[in-house]
Write a structure and sequence with these properties.
By secondary structure, this protein is of the alpha+beta class. The chain is about 60% helix and about 10% strand. The two termini are about 30 Å apart. About 5% of the residues have low confidence.
Amino acid sequence: MWRKVKTFFHVFKSSLFPQPTYYHKLTKAQYSFSFKYFVFLIFVLNSIFICSFVIKYSPSKINRFINSVTKQVGSVPKEMVVNVNKGSLFTNYNRPYFFWATYNNQQKLLLVIDETADPGKIDIYNTYILVTSREIVVKLSQGPKIISLKNFGRHTFQAKDFEKASRSLKTFSKLFYLVYFISIPCLLIILPLVSFSITLFYLFIISLIVYLFFKTYYHKRIHFKKTLQLSFHAVSLPLILDYFLNIFRPTLPTNIRFKLFIPTPLAFLIILVMFVFAAVYEAYQDKHFLQHKRRAS
């Protein structure tokens, strides 16, 4: 077992950056060797991702948050009525309503209902959700998302509806730990399978494009299966960067806001194309150059 782990880390280290000496060896290796490495890499990264989620969002923290929301729903003023009709919201409350919740021992303003507000007021209130007379504004990392109330039809929310919601949340809170600990093993199966399927699809398409390019313009004896095999190693660093950004979500220590114009999935694909291209190029470099490099080292 330890030998296999040691082999994995050696392959992982050698695969991070496409190098002619190592990637040329991969053209002689069995396809199953690279495929097993790719599968294990996906499983390891997803296991780390799930562990980081459990550490960041522990069941006790989430359950305390659910209990806090339950308490707040139950304390909504009994006389308060919220009406949604033909894309408009109006209440019998003559002032904004603030919905607070406790998470990680801190009071968070979760929701504000303000009929007179515009979407930009979500930053002034510093809330996660703002409900105005025409829309629901949700604060997201990439910017606020505006949802029109026209999508919600006609509804009336009053005391009995809030009480019903509070009872449902209490029931869920009692079952929460069971649901949480059942979901973790399920995620350990489902998440790697989904990640494997999506990444393999990306690699198949990218490998086909790179293969056709090299077959046409560079190396006549290249094979698609070998191109795909090389991509199983070339994906290592792009995958790590992708998971790192999703786990830690690093931010720059500045008040200046930076907007990323390239969506994360597209940025990942661009980097992946570059790495697969580099992997194939390095693997099929001129043999004399490789021999010269070995002598120099």
